[in-house]
Specification:
Layout lengths: L2 E6 L5 E6 L16 H30 L1 E2 L10 E2 L3 H8 L3 H30 L4 H15 L2 H11 L5 H8 L14 H26 L3 H9 L4 H12 L1 H15 L4 H6 L11 H10 L4 H31 L1
Antiparallel strand pairs: 1-2, 3-4
Helix pairs in contact: 1-13, 2-13, 3-7, 3-10, 4-7, 7-10, 8-9, 10-13, 12-13
């Protein structure tokens, strides 16, 4: 706060001198807020960048989804088709198998991230040197780009890869992990779940550490064992965290492109073709840009619907 010091002027009387100090505080010691014009000036560059990199591409994608867009018309005027592209997508032979593959992919991620993630988080909730080492390794795994980790797993699961070589060493037959139609989707889904598992463990572990120890001690004094504590105390208190994590995992699954592209390219056949990869195929392999944009627009609607409860859950946790 500004302060005043008394000095003596030429007449011998006191003359107040204002000393420089920190920015004045408002009532109750709170900092003064920036004026709205200055705040808008700070936010304007961020708004412009977000609009250029986010809003404009979405608008163009929606326009493309209701237009006839191909290689010959990409840089020309687009003919308006209305809902024709969407009808063609829904009537195609590839859309519904892709929906099924996406749902299987999502289900595997949810089971692995929530069930195994909970168990691992409960083990890692106890501080120790081993816990710190494991957490550091998990952060490294989570930070790996999907193209890198997918390429590594493609090498490991190949016909002559390390996994099959290990199976043969112990007398078991080799398995076509990525070329068997019955196993390819499960293999890719488990690899994607492996990549997202560290994130789930860290989120659940953070929620567990926020639970007051007195609550768990009281449940233990009442005779509740580890399973009873988990069912009656820990999981109910973690419900908001688990709900937000579930939405994030589903959002991650509906962006399932990287691992599919690197490991199987949608094959064998179309077994591992998920909706994001199908949109990519239509737009950049068959050059049906309108069809690809229609599929991407459907995915955008699903993601937007999931983003609403996610934002509501985050806001509820912050206000709690």
């Amino acid at each position: 706060m500004t302060s005043a010091a008394s000095t003596t002027d030429s007449a011998g009387g006191p003359s107040p001198v204002v000393a420089k100090g920190p920015v004045p505080e408002g009532p109750g010691g709170s900092r003064r807020r920036l004026p709205r014009p200055r705040l808008a000036a700070y936010l304007l560059p961020a708004v412009v960048v977000c609009a250029a990199l986010g809003v404009y591409p979405i608008v163009q994608m929606v326009r493309m989804s209701v237009s006839d867009v191909g290689p010959a018309t990409l840089i020309a005027d687009w003919e308006f088709l209305g809902a024709e592209n969407f009808r063609e997508v829904l009537d195609s032979d590839t859309f519904w198998p892709a929906v099924k593959a996406t749902l299987v992919f999502t289900g595997v991620l949810l089971v692995v991230d929530l069930v195994i993630g909970y168990v691992a988080a409960a083990v890692l909730a106890r501080p120790s040197r081993l816990t710190s080492a494991v957490l550091s390794l998990m952060v490294f795994v989570w930070a790996l780009p999907p193209l890198v980790s997918g390429s590594v797993w493609k090498f490991l699961l190949a016909g002559d890869g390390l996994v099959n070589s290990t199976l043969e060493l112990v007398g078991l037959p080799a398995v076509d992990w990525l070329s068997d139609p019955d196993l390819a989707l499960w293999s890719v889904s488990l690899v994607a779940a492996w990549a997202s598992l560290p994130f789930a463990i860290l989120i659940i572990r953070g929620g567990m550490l926020a639970i007051p120890k007195e609550v768990l001690e009281a449940a233990s004094l009442d005779g509740a064992g580890p399973v009873r504590q988990a069912v009656s105390v820990t999981i109910p208190l973690l419900r908001p965290t688990l709900a937000v994590l579930t939405i994030l995992v589903v959002l991650y699954a509906f962006r399932s492109f990287d691992f599919v592209y690197v490991m199987t390219s949608g094959g064998p056949g179309t077994v591992t073709t998920t909706l994001p990869f199908l949109a990519y195929q239509e737009a950049f392999r068959t050059y049906s840009f309108g069809i690809g944009a229609a599929i991407a627009s459907m995915l955008m609607v699903v993601i937007a619907l999931l983003a609403v409860p996610y934002a509501w859950g985050v806001r509820k946790e912050e206000s709690a």
